[in-house]
Amino acid sequence: FSIDNMLAVCRTGIPLVLPPNARANRIRGQGFFWYDTNQAFRQCGYRSDAYNQYNTDPTRGCGDEADIGCKDDSFVFGFRAHSDQHNPEVMQASKGIVFDNCGRRFSLHDYRRSATFSTVSGRLQNWLDVDGSVTGFQEPSLIGSGLADAGLWWAVDDDAVYDPHGPLYFFRQNTGPERGLGHIKLSFDRTLQSQVPDTLCDNGRGNPCPIVGWIRHLGPRFANDTGLPVTPNADVAGPVGGFGWYLELEGGAPRVLRIQRVEVMHDTPLLLSLAYPLGTNVTLRASATSCRDTSEYSCTEEFRRVDTVTEVRTSLGNVYHHDTTTTGVLTVRVIATPRNFVGRPDWFLPTMDDEGKYGVGYAIPRFERRGIVLPKVNKGPYLDLRADCPESSTNSAYCAGTIPAPTPTDNVDKNICPSGYPHQTAYDKCCSTGTTTTTTSCYYANGATQL
Fold first, then answer.
1. Distance CA 108, CA 91 (A)
2. Which residues are CB-neighbours of 116 under 8 A, at least 6 positions away?
3. Which terminal residue of the chain, N or C, has fewer Cβ atoms less than 10 Å from its own Cβ?
4. What pLDDT digit, counting tens, does each position of 280-300 carry?
5. Beta partners for 355?
6. Are 400 and 391 spatial neighbours (Cβ–Cβ below 8 Å)?
7. Three-state DSSP class for residue 193
8. How far apart are CA 55 and CA 57, in angstroms?
9. Is residue 232 a contact partner of residue 253, using CB atoms and an 8 Å limit?
10. How far is CA 120 from CA 28, 162, 169, 249, 376, in A?
11. How confident is the model over 335-367, as pLDDT tens digits?
């Protein structure tokens, strides 16, 4: 849903008429928990020295006064951050936002009183700021969770701005040629993941949500970062258009990895890499649902192996690269596919303008309002990666054997930055020097050397 042309006035400075013994500073003075365009917020958010990064006006927001104040956890924008079950995917965007003399602007709101670790929803929070009116950049911007448990997942470059209110990270979209947001859902261990949400990863009820793996950005800048925790409820949302995401599961290499609920634009590539024991053969197959092969439409696609990761990145999304002799690393480009067909009849990379089957609707559903466009999940289609490997003796969901240990010369991050560009300065950029000067030259993940 969307909200358009809204003005939220949280306090006016006029004393509230309250029942006896009631106090205004026990009432929240906040905007809302999420969504959409052309909104203005006036005198919202708690006023304190801890939240004076944007505005130091002594009348900003609302304070502790009994008659005109507000509760000390008030904010303008709130994100639901209590759940390991229900997660934001890619679904939040805005433009034309105005903060008029506000206090605290953001909060990753987790109502769990005894929480010792963040949640999946808290770590995945993201926001497309179409015009930069939220970040203050005044240009297209991306916003992600600033929780420490997410590692460097959202701290994508040297210019990323940390916001202590949320906490959040802000970074510009146009400082990389193909930056965007993406989401996937991973299935790899049926026995484990079938316990969600009854006994694992629930909606804030207190069941455990253990870490079973990690996913991070590729490249030397991120090599020592554990990255984003992967749990049995294996939603992953994050910045795309970089050198790729690298997945490591604690159980080992998955014998079957299913990728579904994909949300990503066609022009912001999402590359996913993971390693297998040397010599492992794999097959990859994409499938549609509610589909029958005809002369016009096809329902499945067998991926073919190519020689380089560059070929994967520039492909239509139906090829993979697999180094079976040194690193064991496999890389595939994950794309959003239509629900009820994958080809017309040949495989294609759908854009947001491609028609659906027989001209009905769009191939990729979208949310679109007043210049904001977000891809929506196509429920049903999936990509299966199957490894021809013996079962692990401890868990049949994973391969037996060991994944090659990284060495200084053979590792997943070694060749991300090409010769002449040894310093990775962003998840999608390597440069000739570690600090930007007039003589610095840079190489981007899509192969370009200039924007």
1. 16
2. none
3. N
4. 999 999 999 999 999 999 999
5. 362
6. yes
7. helix
8. 6
9. no
10. 26, 20, 17, 16, 20
11. 999 999 999 999 999 999 999 999 999 999 998
